Amino acid sequence: MNQLTTTTPSVRFCGIDWADDHHDVAVIDEAGTVLVTKRIDDTAAGLADLLDVLATYGDTPQNPIPVAIETSRGLLVACLRETGRPIYAINPMAVARYRDRSSVAGRKSDAFDARTLANILRTDRHEHRALPEDTTLVQSIRVLARAQQDAVWDRVQLQNRLRAHLRQYFPGFLDAYEKASGGLSRPDARAVLAIASTPAAASRVTKAQLRAALRRAGRQRGIEAEVDRVQRTFREQQMRQASDIELAMGHQCLALLRQLDAAAVSARELEQALLAAFDTHPDAEILTSFPGMAGISAARVLGEIGDDRTRFIDARGLKAYAGSAPITRASGKSSFVSRRRVKNHRLADAGYNWTLASLRNSPGARSHYDRRRALGDRHSAAQRNLYNRFLGMLFHCIQTRTHFDEEAAFGHAATAPLPAVEAAA
Question: Which residues contact 74 (CB under 8 A, 6 or more apart)?
Answer without folding.
Answer: 18
